[in-house]
Task: inverse folding
């Protein structure tokens, strides 16, 4: 298995991936990375205070490509992932191909129902009050 790397981009994104040796080309202005996952930091309030959780999400969610090219001049650093991050990456990346984002919705799959008059009036009152509060 290839070493798991963390790439810090100049825009601040942290990307966890592998860099296949067979695709390395020192002369190319691009680096080819395999199955990139973006690190998202999620703050959560707990009894002891604020704690960050880490989530790995598919970085190129609108593409089925697993090999992605990024310009070398957009990379700040490349480091080796620690044990915990490596384990997380292996777990999440094993389902990489399945992690495609749904970009189309089938409107026929939604069940439609008409709201009764009382519910409809309550919703309209709520929307009207929200509309009034944004005008001030």
Result:
């Amino acid at each position: 298995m290839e070493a798991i790397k963390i790439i810090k981009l100049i825009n601040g994104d942290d990307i966890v991936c592998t860099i296949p040796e067979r695709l390395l080309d020192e002369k190319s202005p691009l680096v080819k990375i395999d199955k990139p996952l973006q690190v998202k930091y999620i703050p959560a309030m707990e009894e002891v205070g604020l704690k960050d959780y880490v989530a790995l999400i598919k970085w190129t969610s609108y593409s089925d490509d697993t090999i992605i090219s990024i310009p070398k001049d957009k990379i700040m650093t490349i480091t080796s992932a620690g044990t915990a991050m490596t384990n997380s990456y292996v777990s999440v990346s094993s389902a990489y191909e399945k992690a495609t984002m749904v970009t189309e919705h089938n409107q026929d799959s939604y069940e439609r129902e008409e709201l009764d008059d009382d519910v409809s009036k309550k919703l309209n009152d709520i929307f009207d009050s929200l509309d009034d509060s944004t005008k001030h």
